[in-house]
Amino acid sequence: MFLEKVRSEGLAHISYLVGSNGQAAVIDPRRDVDEYLDIARKKGARIMLVLETHRNEDLVSGALELANATGAAIYHGGQLDFDYGNSLEDGQEFSIGDLRITAMHTPGHTDESHCFLLADGRGPFLLFTGDTLFSGEVGRTDLLGPERLRDMTEKLYDSLHDKVLPLGEGTVIMPAHGPGSHCGHAIGERSPTTIGLEVRDNKALSLPRMDFIMAKMADRMERPPYFKRMEALNLHGPIILGAMPSPPALGPGQVKGAQEDGALVLDLREPQCYANGHIPRSLNVWLDRLPAYGGYAIPYGRPLLLVLDRQEDVDTAVRYLVRMGYEDICGYLRDGMNAWAMSGNVLSSFPAYSVHDVHAAQLSGKGMMLIDLRDTPELEAGLMPGSSLIHLGNIIERSSELPADKELVLFCRSGTRGAIAASMLRNSGMKNVAIMLGGFTAWSKNGYPVEKFRNV
Amino acid sequence: MFLEKVRSEGLAHISYLVGSNGQAAVIDPRRDVDEYLDIARKKGARIMLVLETHRNEDLVSGALELANATGAAIYHGGQLDFDYGNSLEDGQEFSIGDLRITAMHTPGHTDESHCFLLADGRGPFLLFTGDTLFSGEVGRTDLLGPERLRDMTEKLYDSLHDKVLPLGEGTVIMPAHGPGSHCGHAIGERSPTTIGLEVRDNKALSLPRMDFIMAKMADRMERPPYFKRMEALNLHGPIILGAMPSPPALGPGQVKGAQEDGALVLDLREPQCYANGHIPRSLNVWLDRLPAYGGYAIPYGRPLLLVLDRQEDVDTAVRYLVRMGYEDICGYLRDGMNAWAMSGNVLSSFPAYSVHDVHAAQLSGKGMMLIDLRDTPELEAGLMPGSSLIHLGNIIERSSELPADKELVLFCRSGTRGAIAASMLRNSGMKNVAIMLGGFTAWSKNGYPVEKFRNV
Amino acid sequence: MFLEKVRSEGLAHISYLVGSNGQAAVIDPRRDVDEYLDIARKKGARIMLVLETHRNEDLVSGALELANATGAAIYHGGQLDFDYGNSLEDGQEFSIGDLRITAMHTPGHTDESHCFLLADGRGPFLLFTGDTLFSGEVGRTDLLGPERLRDMTEKLYDSLHDKVLPLGEGTVIMPAHGPGSHCGHAIGERSPTTIGLEVRDNKALSLPRMDFIMAKMADRMERPPYFKRMEALNLHGPIILGAMPSPPALGPGQVKGAQEDGALVLDLREPQCYANGHIPRSLNVWLDRLPAYGGYAIPYGRPLLLVLDRQEDVDTAVRYLVRMGYEDICGYLRDGMNAWAMSGNVLSSFPAYSVHDVHAAQLSGKGMMLIDLRDTPELEAGLMPGSSLIHLGNIIERSSELPADKELVLFCRSGTRGAIAASMLRNSGMKNVAIMLGGFTAWSKNGYPVEKFRNV
Amino acid sequence: MFLEKVRSEGLAHISYLVGSNGQAAVIDPRRDVDEYLDIARKKGARIMLVLETHRNEDLVSGALELANATGAAIYHGGQLDFDYGNSLEDGQEFSIGDLRITAMHTPGHTDESHCFLLADGRGPFLLFTGDTLFSGEVGRTDLLGPERLRDMTEKLYDSLHDKVLPLGEGTVIMPAHGPGSHCGHAIGERSPTTIGLEVRDNKALSLPRMDFIMAKMADRMERPPYFKRMEALNLHGPIILGAMPSPPALGPGQVKGAQEDGALVLDLREPQCYANGHIPRSLNVWLDRLPAYGGYAIPYGRPLLLVLDRQEDVDTAVRYLVRMGYEDICGYLRDGMNAWAMSGNVLSSFPAYSVHDVHAAQLSGKGMMLIDLRDTPELEAGLMPGSSLIHLGNIIERSSELPADKELVLFCRSGTRGAIAASMLRNSGMKNVAIMLGGFTAWSKNGYPVEKFRNV
User: Of D45, D70, D334, which has the smallest distance from its Cβ to C22's Cβ?
Assistant: First the structure.
């Protein structure tokens, strides 16, 4: 047998390829499926089966893409009315070479959530848990909306305690996400983990039923706006790409022409670089955080034009975007920002302050408005005195609340979202914006004053 | 700029990827196009253009496959009525980044043959010659049939002397084939070569017009039977695969089942191994010579089931087959012939004699019939006394001429075709066959008697 | 964190690279260390530490090779007097980024055996068990000789029950071997496994102390003769290679010249191919089984010259050999056996019978001597009537017992060892040998008579 | 045969691996030799021979490294007294499989310069020209100093006209450098090229003897200060690395500690990013231009600590540095500058002006001193009015000439050298420095005033 993990960095999504005797199954494939095909080819196995633990919300599924390339059969929970693939029955069994895979209906994260129990000749030993159980965390239950929250939370508790935990402490757990995902605050990076380890270390599993329900109902998690589109795409089936888009290199003149024709320039460099000089009307999302925050900022329906430090990263950027449903990538800036600067084209910029600058400005009474873009759970670390809370996801709709006569200093935990919001606001017409490098982390590490957050 | 060769081993086919400033063109792509896409991705270039020097006869074109993956435009000679792509004008120019490519109509190999002249800012410097001019050889002119032979030969002479050679001795030549191709006897492996070097070393270029025509008209070349199919596929457009087929591993029982359902077992091991033990009713073509000889032996329209020494070679075998239009590959024998032997299934075999055995048998008057499968040009090396000449391509249709009461000992230059023919004859019902290992080469190297061949 | 397995096929050896925050440790490295260096480079980590669970017996350790390339510190059990590296203390702790690794002295397999417990911020979760505990099996205790057998077995029981199992059912287990190793009969391929799963499924763990001791003392396992050399090399430190040997391609004439100068031709093709035609005085070990059986047949101290089906496999063969301490590889036969046959050189051969041939010969009273080369545990599957038992490891020293006037038909479970022994016997002067394809497995699958084995 | 180019980006150095029949030679290897070993392994060839066209000045030779890994013999011109390898005779022949290589002594670039003529069975066809002849350019003759300049130039003319050009127009040329090298202004990217094409397009080849000598003697080329060290290393033999250094990831605290212990922080980000925020006392050289300009700025003998945008680029940076003789790389900043900012550590910065800012400042009479760092040939494009010329290589020794009361605005052609010089000056104690983004190119493209350069 072989069991290979394929991680999608940034989304912290984990998919699995499991095989035996020339056959393989993929659990929760991502959209750029070449890696699965390569592994299967090296292992001498044909991908026969695509199993989806649930309709993914944070990335476009590669199920149809894989089926198109290999003829594999797709299975997902019948509780949702998918436009493609087959419906799972609770307890349904599949054979992959000498292995057996049994579907277990485990509603809670969503109605159609399933876990898949892997068995060899000696018995079951490993559970693909999808978004039901992670290392250090359990699935979120809020995605079907507040009116279903309690119901889903109860179902999750029951799925965990009646179906998953009884499999025994020694059972290995393979979840669909690692740390850094939108799908759970406390997901740890321990891999592999087991039911025994989770019972020992995962706080959510040790709570009595009612405490569990209360805790989950009180929990507040981000729901990036692009989730909606992912849900629709994965329900109805995304278009099949066949091959990854390969955007052409464009010179500065072509970039400006494309902008005039409606393309959005997406600058994927670090916030500090972007702030200091960028193509006017571009949007900034740092490449490393593109999977996490791109869905807050990048509109669908416009061709994208990429700006990167290094051409070697174009393929990474394209994959990140395609996984989130952005397929229309019309080019990238040839030779990067240096080429733009040498062409003599105008560079926009805005201030990138250090925390020391901001502290000094506060002391001197300079008229800044500090805007904290963080999520509620991040606020537990404390607040900057005098700052206003506006979540990244609301910055544009609440921009009318912002004063025109003050410099807006945007910050978050580290600085990435600050620059995203700054670029969004500037594109919407506000010019007097700035960012604070290192964000709240740098502020607090330097011992500058911090207030306690009181959630209401 | 960059210029990358992609070689298809066995067919000795060479395609080229040339690019500059984020754009690329592919000349004469093969059907498995992943390597072009990979190179383009690494170079940060988009493939904009597919140029075909002519309708290829020896492999399925990847033009449509590439166009499907990248949106590239396809161009080929308008003298043939292709069902897809665009028609070239003589002198038509294309830009790829800072490079210019000019199409030159050079009929002779076929009516629609073109060469492509590559120029940078300093002028033209390199000619993609397709099948018009090779290292050490010129294109064959017999493919349109005997009634067009003289006409095509004259055209080739004129194309070479009026269009190609005037480009100047320093011009670099990049042809569509290296040594070992069906497209020319004397193709050398010198790469790169130039017009100056060819004028110095290529005999065909030094012949006066009439001598050239006489020599080409007297020339006899193999035309593998699968060429016809390639020509039709490339004219009308092959089906688009999207991804390489990934055949599943099958156990001995499944192999027998697939045979019953009509699959043909294709044993790709060396002749010596095959002779000594193989799956009954399998066909043998050694993997290394599959591109060269597969088209003589493997029928179209039957699912193929592969037998290989090493599972690592499945991908190579699949590519070789797909390039020749065999897409229906239904599996491969898991764990190779050892698994078959261990399963207790019957192994067929036939004798594989050394040249010493055959010599001794001849001396002792044993009743063997020696069948020489070689091509006419190979016969210049001499003949085995007492042997009969039957070209590999005719062995089945002429099998009724073969005696039933004698052992047929099949041989060729090296031994590969001997085993192909032996497996074909045995499948057609003749059982008393054998091969001679090392073929005529081993025979003559050992100093055994050789007769002179007199062509009539 | 990251945790990568590096498997050495054939030896079924598994080493691990574990890292966090730019630092990495390797557990039980093999000698060709390029894969560790590549992974570390991709992960942006430096290898700081090499941990050896014990002095490996079945392959040359890569500890010194890695230390030479990276400056890593080597640690192994102080109970053995190594000429290099540092001694472990029971309970000694190491930090690798955010991970902690604790050495646990677990004698039993050998005196200096250690397990390594991996912990993250939430606690310990994974045990590298070396040869102490496998999936489905426990370590062998016979390697220090019969006089230490009982003592070591007791120690192993205590290490397992007092140290390993108390870590808890949920603890993940990562052993040094998978199925197919000489280091345990019943090693399964389940990966990952856990203490809980082993307690449930591993028979050795459920035995009471005395039953465990009796069972282990009654157990008979192969000990390939090359183990001795591995033990000495790993104690004193093998020579550092720096880079993998890259043997040159040699033509048939050069091969014969090298043979005259003392080189041993090692033919790595399948038994069936080898039997049918090979270079005189060559030795046959099928490439796939080279790691398992090479150490029985290949003498140390002679330059090796390789014969392979495909040149692509040279690198694999070199790695297999280097891992077993054969560094002096002076070349490989260019273009394989086909080139040898074409050169007109003599091919040796011997019969490769099917089980049907052998059965018919037995019925007809033909004077064959059937020699069964299998290990004692394999004999549980039954015996061929009339066969003699001579273990592969004893075939040369017991060759004087063999009759000169009968054909010796050598067989094993599958056929590989039959051909090894046949080639060894023929090199030692016995000519009348043959093999039985498919071995005992094919015999019994065809329903031919089988006798029960009675161990004495 | 096979012929593979291995390019070292940035240095525009080209080395070659040529092979036939299981043997290979490398011409002018670089120090990180893994790519040669990989190609040879894939081709089934052993590297037998290392040929050096001359003692390289711009990178550390990999000759000893390759000889160490493969046992290959090293040959270079005997006119220089190397401490290792063998001396070439003019006309000396080598065999590599079926190929012949003939050494031709072609002094001019240096005394010991040789070209290597490659021949197959049909005759010579390709010349490895080293630094004697490039596409579009000839070798520089000034490296042995002004007193030898005329002598060397005459020798180069004679080598070209008496030895190289007589080989015939059709001969293919493979030089040791492409465009962007320090080894020639006008080197073009045409590849391959030929003697015929060079005679047509290379101006230096069309000059009569005296004009050639005058032109070369008037030519002024950069000679980066690290050349001296390369020359000494290549004469005496660099230390053998065995494997590429793999620097560990260090946190901000460790970086500061290493700085205190004497390490130099080398920031490899783009000038714009560096200017806007960097680790105090770091040196900036943009990664893409590190091979070209690192040798001007980075002192030998100090451990280096790298700052990069992306961890994926560490390996590239290490290779670039090792090729220039910087082996002591003690780490890289984990998670890049974002981690530094989040840690709350101080960021240094200086202004990065656009050309529009600078133009406006000039108009407003702001007290700036504009310092142009370009080479003499680059000045042909024109000068900025009011700017002072100080070559990058002299900036530190001439820093005492610089005014203390004015802001120094450093610029070059594109901006890279501006930031290098700014970081050097700041480290030497001058604080009032700035750069101009896009350099002279952006200035002139915007139509701002440009003066003519008059060389004196």
Answer: D334
Q: Is there a single domain that holds both residue C225 and residue C256?
A: no
Cβ separation D191–B120 shorter than 8 A: no
ipTM: 0.92
In terms of domains, do A20 and A137 share one? yes
D41: which chain C residues are within 8 Å (Cβ-Cβ)? 244, 246, 314-315
Boundary residue ending a domain (A342, A363, A389): A342
Q: Structure tokens of D358?
A: 């600078």
B128 part of a folded domain: yes
Task: Please report the pLDDT score of residue A443 as a whole number.
Answer: 96
Length of chain B: 456
Please name the member of D195, D199, D201 whose beta carbon is closest to the beta carbon of B122: D201
pLDDT in tens, A15-36: 999 999 889 999 999 999 999 9
Q: In chain D, what residues touch B123 (CB-CB under 8 Å)?
A: 200-201
Does the distance separating the beta carbons of C416 and B344 come in below 8 Å? Answer: no
Chains A and B: how many Cβ contacts under 8 Å?
Answer: 81
Lowest average pLDDT, out of A364-368, D44-48, D98-102, goes to A364-368
- Mutation site for C-interface testing, chosen from A137, A169, A202, A288 by largest number of C Cβ within 10 Å: A169
Last residue of a domain, one of B318, B342, B366: B342
Residue C442 phi/psi, 5-degree rounding, is -65, -40
Nearest neighbour of A248 by CB, restricted to B23, B37, B251: B23
Contact A196 C171 (CB under 8 A): yes
Residue C438 belongs to domain spanning: 352-445
Total domains in chain C come to 3
Is residue C54 domain-shared with residue C170, that is, in the same domain?
A: yes
In chain B, which residues have their Cβ closer than 8 Å to the Cβ of A45?
Answer: 246, 248-249
Q: Check: CB of residue A323 under 8 Å from CB of residue A240.
A: no
The answer to whether residues B266 and B181 belong to one domain is no
Q: How confident is the model at residue B42 (pLDDT cuts 50, 70, 90)?
A: confident
Determine contact, residues C346/C255, Cβ cutoff 8 Å.
no
- Counting one residue from chain C and one from chain D, the pairs whose CB atoms sit within 8 A come to 81
Q: Residues A170, A194: contact at Cβ < 8 Å? A: yes
Residue A335 is predicted with a pLDDT of 87
**CATH number, residue B417:** 3.40.250.10
Q: Pick from B41, B315, B334: which is nearest to A22 by CB?
A: B334
Distance separating alpha carbons of residues D410 and D354, to the nearest angstrom: 12
Cα distances (angstroms) measured from residue B173 to each of B10, B69, B89, D149: 21, 29, 21, 38
Spatial CA neighbour of B431 closest among B394, B412, B406: B406
pLDDT tens for residues C141-163?
Answer: 999 999 999 999 999 999 999 99
Residues D58 and D193 in one domain: yes
Residue B189 belongs to a domain: yes
DSSP string over C397-448? TTGGGS-SSSEEEEE-SSSHHHHHHHHHHHHTT---EEEETTHHHHHHHTT-
Sheet holding D23-27, edge to edge: D2-8, D13-20, D23-27, D46-51, D73-77, D86-88
C-interface mutation test, from D38, D46, D47, D70, most C Cβ less than 10 A away: D46
Q: Show which residues on chain A lie within 8 Å of chain C, measured between beta carbons.
A: 1, 3, 120, 122-123, 125-126, 136, 168-172, 188-201
Residues C24 and C126 in one domain: yes
B93 and B175 both lie in a single domain: yes
A176 within some domain: yes
**Are residues B126 and B104 part of one domain?**
yes
Has residue D325 been placed in a domain?
yes
C392: Cβ contacts below 8 Å, ≥ 6 apart = C293, C296, C373, C412, C417, C420, C421
Q: Touching C: which chains, 3+ CB pairs < 8 A?
A: A, B, D
Q: Which among D3, D122, D194 is the nearest to B172, CB-wise? A: D194
A269, D346: Cβ pair inside 8 Å?
A: no
